[in-house]
Amino acid sequence: PGQGARVITVRPARSEDTARMLEILRENEQILDGVDYGTWSHPTLVAVKDGQVEGFIQAHLGAPYAVVTELCVSRTHARKGYGVKLADAMELMLRAAGVQTYVTYASDRNGRMRDMLGRYGLDETGLGVGFVRRLKT
Question: pLDDT value at position 54?
Answer without folding.
Answer: 95
